[in-house]
## 1
Amino acid sequence: MSRVRTALSIALLGATATLALAVSPAQAAPGDTVNTCASTLTPAGWVDVQWWSTFSCGSTFDPNAKQIKQIAGLPIGTTVNVCSSTLPPAGWIQTASYYSSSCQYSATPSFNPNSWSLRRVS
């Protein structure tokens, strides 16, 4: 039974890694998202949009995975909802601050605002 469980775990890890690497930040178009481990820095022009925990990132930090979204290149006037774990890129302003359960990026839970609505102004 443990061999089957180990084989399933390895298959799941491989599938998750393949999904996370399907689009790299260098190849992405504006609005694309990429799943990555929390230990990876969010590139310039990208923002965090979701956090969770997964075995594939192997870290003891909880949560240890995040989804990032490329917002550089989106048209002026575009509004996006993002986690406040990254600063808004140049040309974007914060229009609202609120709590979102998908943006819990700390192991210490809180109901304080952890998300922003951003609008592109230039």
## 2
Amino acid sequence: MIYNGKLIKNSEGISPQSTIMFCFPYAGGGAAFYAKWIQYFDKKLSVCPIQLPGREERIGEKPYLNMQSLVKDVVDAIMRFDNDFILFGHSMGGKIAFEVEKMLENNKRVAKLAIFSGSRVPHIPEPQPISHLTEQEFLIGLERYDGIPEEIKMDKRLLNFYMPIIRSDFILDESYYPDAPSKLICPVLAIGGNEDREATLADIKRWSEYTQSKFQYYLFRGGHFFIKEDEENVLKLIHQKSEEFINREN
């Protein structure tokens, strides 16, 4: 069991009346990405990033390679909160968020809204897996995701430091997929980038197969990391939709 303080960030002193948005990382990403989101939403929505082992202050810990182990630890931590909640996950984080919500619903906890961002639906295996490739081939494969900063690409030391973490996340992501869609009780919002080569509009729309409740989708300007490129509009939409779904019954 991983304690909340390590796995769930920014969770101290949350009012029982607050709605929490648990945010799941993309491959290689950490909780620090959501620091601006915490400030943006302030008291309107308590943003609690999930900090997986193997990154930032947890860099010395072994990363997860198995989805079910990860999901069980996250669900155990979230179950300690009685608050209403929203789930947000980008890319790999979308698949984690889906499995977390599925297990939470089995425990009679239902999100006000699940937001799947830049993520293909889980039951379709990765058509071009890269986790098994050589170092150079793996690096070339990562170009599809537009997610590695130039300063890391140009620094061999930094690259050698980050590659094992990113590869572990891709092993986790690519080795997991259910056989068929399973419908969540909660409503689903799927968002993507209009130039994303990994999660196209058709991929985003397929999240409709994963809920028995309301489904909506939106496209933003940008590629796979449109959440950085068009961040202001992404945050505005999340704010709008969170208020809409917090104030309605699922």
